[in-house]
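QA checklist item 7 of 12: single-chain prediction sanity check.
[x] sequence parsed
[x] length recorded as 240
[x] structure emitted
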Amino acid sequence: MGLGVLGKEKLFAILKKLIIVEVLAYLAFMGLALVADWGQIYEKFVLAKYIRFEIVEFLFLGLSQLVIIFVVFARSLAEEGDINELLKQGEHEKMEFKTSLRWDAKRGQVNKELEKAVMKTVSAFLNSGGGCLLIGVNDKNKPLGLEEDFTSLSKPDTDGFENHFNNIFNSMLGPEFRRLVKLDFENVDGKLVCLVSVRPSQRPAYLKTENGENFYIRTGNVTTPLKMSETANYISSGKI
């Protein structure tokens, strides 16, 4: 039995993290090798009489590789556990679920209003102390996955999803806020979902649409628009 699309996506994400950590570890080892002659230092120890430095070096590198692999996989499993915990908590002031980014299952087509709804929530979190958005989960806390969103994109994978998210984010909110938002893809019960983690903004984030600019905040587990006078009062109150 093959891994399937979701399994491959998860494996690719883990391998990507592993490669990054391996490169960083390699650079660190190179830096250590350049600052001192470790072989000469090792010769001063009693152990050098019984075990050659090359063997100790090989064992150290091997153990380091095992530790790196263990840590990366352990963190990946912990992240999946964290997602399950978020699902159990359900929606609240700092958490909202969205079935998809753009695919309307009822209509069987792309719906730009769904993209707008996602960006409304993100903007509200930016203006209200931050929060998290899970895409690919329905309002009954059930993971549905991102497969239909993927098939609607020219590049049907996590990279294509994030690229499209970036495009609509930059258009509707502005690239200056993108550094405050992080996307993570996690496999939950065989379904790939996207966790959008939003940090609070130090300046107002307005949602730009064809009808102008709108300001949103979180009130309980709801994304709420404010009128112009309400927005001015909210900002002047020091909540941003």
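[x] summary fact logged: Residues 4-89 form one domain.
[ ] second reviewer sign-off
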